Amino acid sequence: MVWSDTTINASEHQAFQSFFKAVDWLSEEDRKYLTAKLDPNSPPSREELEMWWKTIKSSVDNDTTYPHLSSIGIEILKKNAPEVAHTFPLSKVEKELGNLESQLGIIGQSAALTFKSSHANISTSYETKKGFETEKLTALLDGRRKPLIDEIKSVISKKEFDYVDPGNLKEYREQVLVWCKMLADKGYGSIGFPKEYGGGDDMEGYFTVMETLSYRDLSTVIKFGVQFGLWGMSVFMLGTKKHHEKYLPAIGTLELPGCFAMTETNHGSNVRGIETTATYNHKEKTFTINTPHINARKEYIGNAALHGKMATVFAKLLINDKDYGVSTFIVPLRDEEGKTLPGIAIEDCGRKMGLNGVDNGLIAFDKVTIPKENMLDRFSSVDEEGEFQSPIASDNKRFFTMLGTLVGGRIGIPRSALAASKSGLTIAIRYADKRRQFGPDGTTEVPILNYRMHQRRLLPLLSKTYACHFAMEYVTERFLNRKEDEMQEIEALAAGLKSYVTWHNTATLQECREACGGKGFLSENRIDALKNDSDVYTTFEGDNTVLLQLVAKSRLSAYKEQFENMNLFTVIDYVVNKTKTSITEKNPLIIRNTDENHLLDPEFHLNAFQYRENSILSSAGKRLKRLMDEGMDPFDAVNVAQHHLFTLAMAFIERVILEKFIEKIEQTTDPELKQVLKRLCDLFALYQIETHNGWYLEQGYMEGIKSKAIRKMVNQLCWEIRKDAVPLVNAFNIPDSCLSAPIAT
């Protein structure tokens, strides 16, 4: 064993010399022989080492556990020289040789396995098992929209939707347009429009189509979303009947391809600051759309570079030199032959990091005249006298109401991102289940999914994907059944989940790529396309970091309103309840409790998430108030506390996600599904608590002993979920033709 690395170091040599002097059962001849065989300057020959190896291996019983290497030596002695073994002090020999092994740093029981031909252990024997009916979980995930989902999967699995080489920009863009036209011909494009304009009056169906298409080609998803979601829905949500009748039927069939021209070079998230102008000419009953300088061009506009014939243009409304804020206008871009109209300058954004099937462009308007009726006038209009009119008196409320009608995009994008995460995880987990590497000496190699660190890499991401799926179900339902007084909360939910889910997607696909090694780097296995095409989702429909500021401000507004509506008795009640909560949550028994039932209790998980959210909310509110009481400008105060607000928004969203996951489990009646979903939910909750354990330790919410127990439980949950991992990704029911990854078959 000591010669296995071909050298004997000084400390090992000294240990042997001391050993030879100390034991009394070696003859002088034996000592000289062993000293010669253990001379650091005279290693054994390859033939001698091989002879030793064969002699030892032939004497080892694969079914016997050997506590020391000396135990194997005794076996050899008994087999080859039974008469000597009979007279030898074997117990003493085994004990003293065992002590020598310890001095040399050899763990005898483990080292003995080296000489076995084979042996079974937990890591080699653990494997995928089907603990639930995959079809039932698929049905639970798809819900009532399963027929539509299956229908779309069938469509995108056909030969006509086979992947094309994205390297040829021109051909790829044209192919994506063809695919969108095929989908429009089947009625999917207009599915969210009212029936009287050729639609299906099914906004939930639109989101379902977007998400399901995301299993195929993300350029198609975005082109589809620009045409029917942004362009079409802006006409529907911001326009009135005359616009609906004139444009929606042609938009729904893709006869009228269009754009959504909001973002400018200098203004993305700050829509209120856009500089494109729409000047009203009362005498001519027209608007003049103008780009005042190069940095006010509409930039990164999907459908603009090649195919868009019209655009919804966001511009500052000017009447008699007075600025009435942002309104929206339909502006023609190209004629029937596709030629750019006078006053319109369009530049191709060119090749991008991903989504190269979408023709993004920059648009500049040089005093382009449009008729008065091209103003989308649901929330702002110009009357017959040339005066500005709006059903909403407050400029601020009108602006946010206008943008709020477009919140659907912040639901479609994260649902698309979830589909990309599911695709990446399906590829990586299936591959990890069949890819074998290393293993105990003398045995077969082990699936890499059996390695604890590999489980740690992928399975918390899988649990988070399931958690986000149920949260997106919830926010979609809230949006579809929205009431006016709930819109601020729904917008905050949509903005927060959009940020959380798209960041999760980016992290997930990177981990999936690395977990598949070089295979994940090959384009044929599609993780590169998923990564590149969905990367922009973190800044699509609003930059994630900016959106989370919106979420935090919404939470602070609700917090402030809560106190403003309190009288003396409700304030006392609030303080008492907060005190009770603090006493309960920080009970010395609770903060140190490592009992398994407690660690896996959803009440403990939810309490921990709620405590974190409420504590950060309270401290953020107090901090901002203190800064402003000290005379700091409100803008500066918010800027100083920006990281605090970011953390608040993330805590709020994580609490909502956990809440909805727990609710889904409570609603599930199938015991097998309930069990596997409970394990996933436990992993999601404890992994997030572990992620934030620094905060919890700072707050005295738990002690180190509990933090360690949570880490250990996360490891255990990963191990338990491993056997279900492949069925769990199979439950996403992604067509193989869509995955199109050889390593996932």
UniProtKB/TrEMBL annotation:
Is-annotated flag, keyword Heme? Answer: no
Domain Acyl-CoA oxidase C-alpha1 residue range list: 404-554
Provide the Acyl-CoA oxidase/dehydrogenase middle domain boundaries.
Answer: 259-368
Cofactor dependence is on: FAD
Q: Does the keyword Lipid metabolism apply?
A: yes
Enzyme Commission identifier(s): 1.3.3.6
Which family, according to UniProt?
A: Belongs to the acyl-CoA oxidase family.
User: What is the protein named?
Assistant: acyl-CoA oxidase
Lineage per the UniProt record: Bacteria, Pseudomonadati, Bacteroidota, Cytophagia, Cytophagales
